Automatic annotation (TrEMBL):
Record-linked CDD domains: APP_MetAP
This protein's record includes keyword Protease: yes
GO molecular function terms attached to this record: aminopeptidase activity
All copies of domain Peptidase M24, residue ranges: 142-343
Organism of provenance: Frigoriglobus tundricola
Name of this protein: Aminopeptidase YpdF (MP-, MA-, MS-, AP-, NP-specific)
InterPro entries: Creatinase/aminopeptidase-like (IPR036005), Pept_M24 (IPR000994), Peptidase_M24B (IPR050659)
Keyword Protease: yes
Parts of the chain that traverse the membrane: none
Gene3D superfamilies: Creatinase/methionine aminopeptidase superfamily
Keywords assigned by UniProt, alphabetized: Aminopeptidase, Hydrolase, Protease
Length: 357
């Protein structure tokens, strides 16, 4: 999980860049996760409700939040945590739940500085977006937790995805394996579906019954405290890929390796994309998805590894590379790994198997 020292360091870096003369009031869920580890469980009655983080120019921070939030809210790393009573279950509510934070906002200047219409919002978002690209050690540790659990789901899939089961059953099995690896439930979302080619490159699970010879794309994320993994394998149902299907996998593996060779700080994202596209050779026109993207609190997030990228990799970026080919009459296939960018290259963070069988 995120640490108190990590959160404090990020707040101080933020203040050093912003240089405010008055307290800064923040409410965007991503900002609160990043700066104090405040995270409301997505699967809960409080999923749509958040908090307020007040950061004084001297660095002191106070988190205000609805006391009915799950316990994860009260575990955030701020100098002070102030729960506000909305509804006790014994007396009527004190008012509209979304207004429970209003008094705290008014007491600290009446502005929320990362609300879309606040004059300071563009600067706040620009600073925090740039900061978030350079992951801190506690963030990387949390991402590795997500990835270890994600790998457990992929391992389950390689053993259990077979003709006769439904896409929904695959999702349930993968999620259960993830829960077991984490020791708790978590959000698991992504592509759990057969791809016939260009007409369907992904999607949520359906009642479709898997048939021998279909290509099943298993591309999903595990979310813990707002941070997430994201990596992919494609399996041939029944374990007997055609030569054409194997060619899709061989070309994608070649493209992934070519893109990874370009991963290091200072390299334009365009170069990594071009390396993958070139590796596909005469099949490049069937590479119709992006080549990768940043990963952390959002999915996707900068940098973007795409055909017309304008960004450059920096040390601390966590990125995915996800080459794939989608050929009608053969099937759609995608593979993906996650990487931490360093000054001299990269550390591969995902280690699942990428084969059709």
């Amino acid at each position: 999980m995120l640490t108190a020292d990590g959160c404090r360091t990020r707040r101080l870096r933020f203040l050093d860049r912003l240089k405010p003369t008055r307290p800064v009031v923040l409410a965007d869920p991503l900002h609160l996760r990043y700066l104090c580890g405040f995270h409301v469980d997505t699967i809960s009655s409080s999923a749509d409700f958040g908090g307020l983080l007040v950061i004084r120019p001297d660095g002191h921070s106070t988190l205000f939040y609805d006391h009915k939030l799950p316990k994860t809210g009260g575990l955030a790393h701020a100098d002070e945590r102030t729960p506000l009573t909305w509804y006790t279950g014994q007396e009527p509510e004190t008012g509209t739940r979304r207004l429970v934070l209003r008094a705290a906002a008014e007491a600290h200047g009446g502005r929320i500085h990362d609300s879309l219409t606040d004059p300071l919002a563009p600067q706040v978002f620009a600073i925090l977006s740039e900061m978030r690209r350079r992951k801190d050690p506690d963030e990387i540790a949390l991402l590795k937790t997500c990835m270890n659990a994600c790998a457990a789901g992929h391992a389950w899939g390689r053993v259990n995805i077979r003709p006769g089961v439904t896409e929904l059953e695959v999702y349930a099995g993968v999620a259960t394996a993830v829960y077991a690896a984490l020791g708790r439930w978590a959000v698991v979302y992504g592509d759990f579906t057969v791809s016939p080619g260009s007409t369907k490159r992904g999607g949520p699970p359906t009642p479709h019954v898997l048939e021998a010879g279909e290509l099943f794309i298993l591309d999903y994320s595990v979310v813990v405290q707002g941070y997430r993994s994201d990596f992919t394998n494609t399996l041939c149902i029944g374990g007997r890929p055609t030569p054409q299907q194997q060619q899709l996998m061989d070309r994608s593996l070649r493209a992934l390796a070519a893109g990874a060779q370009e991963l290091r700080a200072g390299v334009p994202c365009q170069r990594a994309y071009d390396a993958m596209r070139t590796a596909f050779g005469d099949m490049a026109d069937s590479f119709t998805t992006h080549g990768g993207h940043g990963l952390g609190l959002a999915h996707p997030e900068p940098p973007y590894i795409v055909r017309h990228s304008t960004e450059t990799l920096v040390a601390g970026d966590v990125v995915t590379l996800e080459p794939g080919l989608y050929v009608d009459g053969v099937g759609g296939l995608r593979i993906e790994h996650n990487f931490l960018i360093t000054d001299t290259g990269y550390e591969q963070l995902s280690h699942h198997t990428t084969t059709l069988v």
